[in-house]
């Protein structure tokens, strides 16, 4: 294979290596399968170069001719069904699989140790509740970030980003002079996981958040992660209950051990193990988050429409209390999550479908609920003034208003055939940074403005 310049050769080889790495993420595809596919890819590139195409053009067309990775994964899965399920359960023969697993296991143990480390200095959850509340996510999410620094070979830049970010956040959170009953402290701790998750996302993408495609990958990853974590937590809860029950049969009470050691250690370790699990099983079976989004979209649409109709008929308005606002925002965030996963799983080239129209109806319903909530919050602030909780609710609902409005407009334009679906994808991937910025404002700025 000949090229016009060494720079072109380097870029092509790098692209082929990245393509091969992505192919090998599919549990149905083994190393020898990737060798065969790469050989076909190179033959296609050679033929296209001989026709006078540029290197980048040849690579793009050749990868299209090879076929989509999803189709390849399904095709190999049909031929090697037994091997696929062995890979899902026991892992493949790839050296990277065992390396990744043992790395994740080691880091899971490190996260558990970090949680219990303060106990050596007499700091326990019972005696220093707020210390653990402030640092709970700091014990595990930066460790998950370190998994991707190693896995994606981000080098010193990755470690600087991770260590600098985690230490900076930890220092600020623990150095603030919080009051005994502090609304801003509660708000900061609620938003801190979102800020740390964005830090993990920058490391997960492997390209420092520079492309819409990798941001979309992180959205898909987040959905799968949430589902796997819930399933693992449910399994861990059943295992813990059975363990306590079995020992109680022989007259030994280990409930204290489960509460103080087993459950916290398992929760910390699960954060890293789930991250490995989502990566390891990527493409092996149908992604769960988009499937659940399709199931729950009509149900949430019915819920919001019924809620709006009842409010209109009865003439009742929101009773804006803190608990209600938290619950309402949680509902709208779940709806936003359904939209995110539905958009991330949809093929851009497909024509508008009935589900797209249902998705638009869900977005409009959520938008109307958000507008009503904003009116109620604005009235409350006009009557009683600004507080940390009311300001946070106002800001979050304004962000949801902008986000949902963009979705509603772009979805409507797409359904009418006036805009491409890719604009929706760009809207959601580029708006993620807004959520992270708002989380940082609540964590760092609110305590200063509202006096800790």
Protein model, in words:
It contains 17 helices and no strands. 79% of the residues lie in helices and 0% in strands. Helix 8 runs antiparallel to helix 9. The radius of gyration is 25 Å and the shape is globular. The protein is mainly α and 452 residues long. The protein has three domains: 84 residues, no CATH class; 187 residues, no CATH class; 132 residues. InterPro entries: Perm_prefix_1. Keywords: Membrane, Transmembrane, Transmembrane helix. This is DUF4153 domain-containing protein.
Task: Give a topology summary.
Elements: H1 6-23, H2 31-50, H3 55-66, H4 69-79, H5 81-90, H6 95-116, H7 129-135, H8 141-151, H9 155-175, H10 183-205, H11 212-249, H12 255-280, H13 288-314, H14 322-345, H15 354-384, H16 388-415, H17 422-449
